[in-house]
Amino acid sequence: MAAADCILVSGPSRGGKSEWAEHLVAQLGDAYTVVYLATGGSHGEDPAWQQRLALHRQRRPSSWQLREVGANLVEALLPTAALTQQLVLLDSLGSWVAHHLALPEVDWLGLQADFLKLLAERRPPTVLVAEEVGWGVVPPTALGGLFRDRCGRLTRETAALCGQRWLVLDGQALPLHQLATPLPPRR
């Protein structure tokens, strides 16, 4: 069941999904304190990653709180007095999946279920960024295939909880919640 206060923004790399998510948060943010949960980590010596982080910092208002949660997203979403009053921007689901690729499937499914339960119970708005993977080349490694499959399933399960679902490609945002027809329920 979708919650109107949950928004999913997905799309390919460099398509503009983080920018669109930040735009949506800025529209909602006056009524809330905004906390930005970053799952990507700092990747200390990677200059391209550092440049991405710098661009995100430049776009983000200084009033937004940043919490670099990395692999600890579930713990970061546990309800606290402050978090129950804050609008959350979570960027991104794919980075969180990448942190947990070594987990056995049963452990991953439990962690995913914990995340989805916390998301479903949140009342302040939550804006989530997710990578759309698997649109092109089949990954040549088992690890790449595992990432693609876990990320795709998590994004689909998350979308089912969100009242708004946006697909952002080539700098264009498409409102899937208005344009798309959901697949019939799985049997």
Structure description:
The protein has seven helices and seven strands, in the order E-H-E-H-E-H-E-H-H-E-H-E-E-H. The chain is of the alpha/beta class and 187 residues long. The chain has a seven-stranded mixed sheet, with helices on both faces. 30% of the residues are buried. The mean pLDDT is 90.
What count of structural domains?
1
State the helical fraction: 40-55%
Q: Can you tell me the overall shape?
A: globular
**Order of strands in the sheet with the most strands?**
3-2-4-5-1-6-7
Determine the N-to-C terminus distance.
Answer: 17 Å
Concise overview:
Helix content is 41%, strand content 23%. The protein is α/β, with parallel strands linked by helices.
Main attributes of the structure:
7 helices, Rossmann fold, 187 residues
Indicate the topology.
Blueprint: E1 3-11, H1 17-28, E2 33-38, H2 47-59, E3 65-68, H3 73-77, E4 86-91, H4 93-99, H5 105-121, E5 126-131, H6 142-159, E6 162-169, E7 172-175, H7 176-179
Parallel strand pairs: 1-5, 1-6, 2-3, 2-4, 4-5
Antiparallel strand pairs: 6-7
